[in-house]
Design goal:
Family: Belongs to the GMC oxidoreductase family.
Largest sheet: 7 strands, mixed
Pathway: Steroid metabolism; cholesterol degradation
Number of helices: 14
Strand content: 15-25%
Helix content: 25-40%
Protein name: Cholesterol oxidase
Organism: Nonomuraea helvata
Number of strands: 21
Pfam families: GMC_oxred_C, GMC_oxred_N
Distance between the termini: 38 Å
């Protein structure tokens, strides 16, 4: 173990929760160190292939659980590097949800109205635009036309993309080589570094201990850049404040492993996990019916065959995002490009379940389906789940037992969907199928949990905020109950499923948490202030929240 370093603030993770906190604290004058488990890749290092050892396998973390699998970012910039840049705000009803506990999950201090100024701060720092139909990819247009044909509405999704720079290569999930996606590598992180923050890639945090002076010691291992199973030297850094933002699949594991030395954790640490209610439906579209029924045709004369052309989610159906509807019947249906790999393997052959033959994810029928991959259309469902996930005892190191050189690990998360969650999925499945199959447009099938369980690319709620200590790990300013000076600002803090892509909400909550972190740091002797502009110098967002933070 190397000598112990010291800093004012230690941030674990460099995704939305970590980068936003790091920027504001560094800009406010605090010494900030960011420990990131994954590598730090420059724009030109993002590769357009899926080979082992490429950027694609290096920047992802796929953790297999029991009934739930989690796909997340593993690089400097975290999920912002691999996300599809969809940035909608959560519907108003989300903040009144009761979930599986029978009472409001969110703290009383947070509603859509009180969070809107913080959403505005994010939109100023990560420019978010509402796309016009001219920006929409062909698959997005096909989904919009299918929705219209079935009497539904369709909406272009707000995105953090420079549409003038985007070349519509559809490799967004492997990192943007063209600088069009406004990941954290283009705003908060370089601004944090400019203010003196130190980013340490390939540093995996294992546990936290408490020092005699009330501060904390964060223990880490250095990870090999090619084989993530190989660990190099260990080290530790002392800090007055610790901000955990390692992701909802890793933050609770760090706290669980810290408990023997740090002391008892709140009951909710590692419980109430939500997969944001996510599920995929894959359709094979009938080219002739697409032309005849919807009147669509590309410049080369084909009706569709454009599954791979364009970019990530462009168009969503939000008809069911109606606050007057009962909980567990509200959801969104969003066109999505899920690239080859896991998506190709687990897509179900349409008709197998209806015929009683079970999930058809391999065999002759699957081979025939793969021949028509250009005619696929994938719909991403986001329902309201019941926060059923629970983490078991932590593995010896990391968030999972590494199975392969990169990307793949076996975790301790168990997820047993409740009847409410299963009914919600079934309802969303049926509507997506009805839209996609009307008048013979195509044949659709939802991915089945029977193959490998559920899956999520947006893990949430494993250390959530709330007013009730029995069901929340954090108070409403994101401080860990019973452990002053430790804050959680990533998706783990979000109380439950949002029915839309969560990046904008995670970022807004992180922005909202910063004044409280600054206050706690000052109480611990750190010379820091709150009030930095947006990373590009904009101040309108700062003025918009001034009345919410007082003189901090």
């Amino acid at each position: 173990m190397t000598g112990v370093e010291r800093t004012d603030v230690l941030v674990v993770g460099s995704g939305f929760g970590g980068a936003i906190a790091a920027y504001h604290l560094a800009a406010g004058g605090a010494g900030v160190v960011i420990l990131e488990r994954g590598p730090w890749l420059e724009t030109e290092e993002f590769e357009h292939d899926y080979k082992l050892g490429s950027s694609y396998t290096r920047i992802f973390d796929f953790t297999v659980g029991d009934g739930m699998n989690v796909l997340g970012g593993n690089c400097v910039g975290g999920g912002s590097v691999i996300y599809f840049a969809a940035m909608p705000r959560a519907p108003r009803f989300v903040f009144e949800r009761q979930g599986g506990i029978g009472r409001r999950m969110w703290p009383a201090s947070i509603s859509r109205d009180t969070l809107d100024p913080w959403y505005d701060r994010v939109a100023e720092s990560i420019p978010v635009s509402t796309q016009g139909w001219e920006d929409v990819s062909y698959p997005g247009g096909l989904w919009a036309a299918a929705c219209d044909h079935s009497g539904r509405t369709a909406n272009p999704v707000p995105v953090a993309i420079d549409n003038d720079t985007c070349v519509k290569c559809n490799w967004m999930m492997a990192g943007c080589r063209f600088g069009a996606k406004r990941s954290l590598l283009t705003n908060y992180l370089p601004a944090a570094v400019a203010h003196g923050a130190s980013v340490r890639p390939l540093h995996e945090v294992q546990r936290i201990t408490r020092n005699d002076d009330g501060g904390y010691r964060v223990h880490y291992d250095v990870i090999d850049g090619e084989d993530y199973r190989i660990r190099g030297e260990s080290g530790a850094i002392d800090a007055r404040i610790v901000v955990l933002a390692a992701g909802a699949g890793a933050t609770p594991v760090i706290l669980q492993r810290s408990e023997p030395e740090l002391g008892p954790m709140p009951h909710a640490v590692g419980r109430y996990f939500s997969g944001n209610g996510e599920r995929l439906v894959t359709a094979v579209m009938n080219e002739e019916r697409v032309r005849d029924v919807l009147g669509l045709e590309r410049e080369d004369g084909t009706a569709y065959e454009a599954f791979h052309i364009g970019k990530g989610p462009c168009v969503a159906n939000w008809d069911r995002l109606d606050g007057s509807l009962p909980e567990f019947t509200r959801y969104s249906l969003e066109q999505l490009y899920f690239p080859p790999g896991l998506g190709t393997i687990l897509a179900q052959v349409p008709g197998g379940l209806a015929q009683g033959t079970g999930p058809s994810w391999f065999g002759a029928s699957k081979k025939e389906m793969l021949k028509r991959w250009k005619s696929w259309l994938i719909i991403f469902e986001m329902i309201e789940d019941s926060n059923e996930g629970v983490f078991g005892p932590p593995p010896p190191t990391g968030n999972a037992v590494r199975i392969s050189q990169q990307m793949l690990g076996r975790g301790t998360l168990r997820y047993d969907p409740s009847p409410s969650t299963l009914r919600a999925w079934a309802q969303a499945d049926a509507e997506a199928k009805e839209i996609l199959e009307r008048d013979g447009l195509g044949h659709a099938e939802a991915w089945s949990n029977d193959v490998v369980g559920a899956y999520t690319v947006h893990p949430l709620a494993s250390c959530r905020i709330g007013d009730d200590p029995a069901t929340s790990a954090l108070d409403d300013r994101h401080e860990l109950r019973g452990h002053p000076g430790i804050f959680v600002t990533d998706g783990a803090a979000v109380p439950g499923a949002l029915t839309v892509n969560p990046a904008m909400t995670i970022a807004a909550l992180a922005e909202r948490a910063v004044p409280g972190i600054v206050e706690a740091a000052r109480e611990r002797g750190v010379q820091v202030r709150y009030g930095a502009p947006a990373p590009d110098g904009g101040t309108s967002g700062r003025r918009g929240v001034a009345h919410l933070v007082g003189r901090r």
